[in-house]
Each structure stands twice: as structure tokens, then as C-alpha cells.
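Please check this record.
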Amino acid sequence: MTAWIAAAALALSAGAATAQSSGDGCRLALVLAMDVSSSVDAREDQLQRRGLAAALLAPEVDRALFASPLPVAIAAYEWSGRHKQKLLADWQLIRNRADLLALAETIGRSSRGETEFPTAMGYALGYGAGLLSRGPRCLFQTLDMAGDGQNNEGFPPASAYAEFPFGEVVVNGLVVAATDGPDQVDIVRYYREHVLHGPGAFLEIARGFGDYERAMRRKLIRELQPRAIGALPGRLPPGPG
């Protein structure tokens, strides 16, 4: 590990340490990461913030979330520059619909922490890895990276995957691509080639921030549906007692 990435790892781990474990016995630990870099204006930020909250409460997402007796744990943060990550919702074990409503309200009412920083995706991934390592012990771990641009500050995603604990973590993506031109092709290709990580990782595309809720809803349904027994990792959390 290079010295500068090592220093970043220490800082990101300290930043993620505010997340507290909610205990064992869950089937999925899901982290939702929201891009608030300078390319996202105030209107777009509200569309994605409220869109994420609305997607969590969609009936079809509700059905996928509660399709198994094992609960799902969810946390959310926003990210932009190198050390500009902000926890929006600490780990919450979603045992019932009241828990889900509380989480959605927390995200929907959250306020943006930064407006002027670039897209430090490697740092954002590192923060997410720290958040997962301090979260509940679940059967699976998934990190969602949503954004509208490529990494343009600090180390790239490949360095984050090499130096942070991503061994059993799947990283899915949600690309916000407003046009059908070359810029959209580039960002979609970038996410597919550099951001998606782990077996079964997939990408959803939002046609602008006005389409964010629909794309997020599709992604959450796919992630939250209970997995087949054959997909279970080799080491499972211990049972009660």
C-alpha cells in the first residue's frame, strides 16, 4: 500500500467509525452512496435525495425487502471530494415498516453537506468499505455507488479495491446520464469497467436526475430480493447463543 493511500485509509476509517453495529442475524448489509460533487446542482440534489427516499417506500421494494424473515441492514452517505463524505443515515436494521419509514424520512430530510468539490470516487469507496466493516454481520454485503461522473480527484476505484476490505463486497452502480451523446457512453463504460465489483455486480442507468427514483427503485428490487441458498458465501454469521 502506498503511503498516501495508507494515510487516506486511516482518515476514511476514522470518518466511517461513527457507524455502529446493529448486531448479527441479517441477510444483507446495504450501503447507499450518493454523489454530491460540484456537477450536481441544488435541484438535482433534491431529486436524488427525495428519489432515494421514495424508492425505499415503493410497494415493490417493500415486498422484496420483507420477502424473507431475515432483516436487511441499511446505511447511507453522501460523497464528493477526497475527505468530503457525510453519513446521512447510520446503520438501521429494517425489521418492520416503521423502521423503513424512519430511514426514508431521515434520508429525504437530510441536507447537503458540500457543493464545491470534485469526484473522488476512490475515497468514496474507501469510506464505504469502512462503513461496511463496522456494520452488522450479514450474509451478504453490497455497496451502491450512484453518480453522474468519472473519478477526477485522488486514487481511482482500482486502488480502493486493492487496498480496502472489498473481498466479499459487491459494488453495484447507478449512473445518472442526462443525454444520449458520447458523455453518456463514456460514463456508462467507466462504471462498467472500473466501478462494478464482485460476482453479480450490475448497473442501472437513470436518464437524468428526474429519472433517479425509477432507476433506484429497479436497483433496490434486484438487490433486496432474497438470494438462493446456493449463493450463500462460505462463512455464515453464527446463530444466536
In short: Residues 17-23, 234-241 have pLDDT under 50 and may be disordered. The chain is about 40% helix and 20% strand. The longest helix spans residues 42-56. The radius of gyration is 17 Å.
